[in-house]
Write a structure and sequence with these properties.
Helix 2 links the parallel strand 3 and strand 4. It is built from 2 helices and 5 strands, in the order H-E-E-E-H-E-E. A 5-stranded mixed beta sheet has the order 1-2-3-4-5, sandwiched between helices. 32% of the residues lie in helices and 37% in strands. It is an alpha+beta fold and 126 residues long. It has a single domain, classed as Trna Endonuclease, Chain: A, domain 1.
Length: 126
Amino acid sequence: MQTTDVRQVLGRRGEDLAAEYLTGLGYRIVDRNWRCRAGEIDLIARIEQRGRSKIVFCEVKTRSGLGYGSPLEAITHAKARRLRQLAGQWLAETGEHGDDIRIDGIGVLIKPGTRPQIDHVQGIDG
């Protein structure tokens, strides 16, 4: 298996785990791997809280070790800004709406022989 294939498999597994995690918290996944010319949004979810509907756009980063830092360290301020722009484009194209939107980062660490670790940071775009 080539390095690219291994990374794609790892990334897909991380996104699957992140989706399961969010679903377990009461989120409903409404889109995955949405792409447009400007980029991609890994997961888009909706949650109802206190009578309000929130759409959450998630960047998922997965790593198999900490040699290059934690997965969340890979989500830069520039990436968060771009996700905000992509979120606006997704909303415009789909006609979806909510009372609020949020950009989250989800880091998934899948180390061989251990249980996957998920770190979820809400509101990464300040």
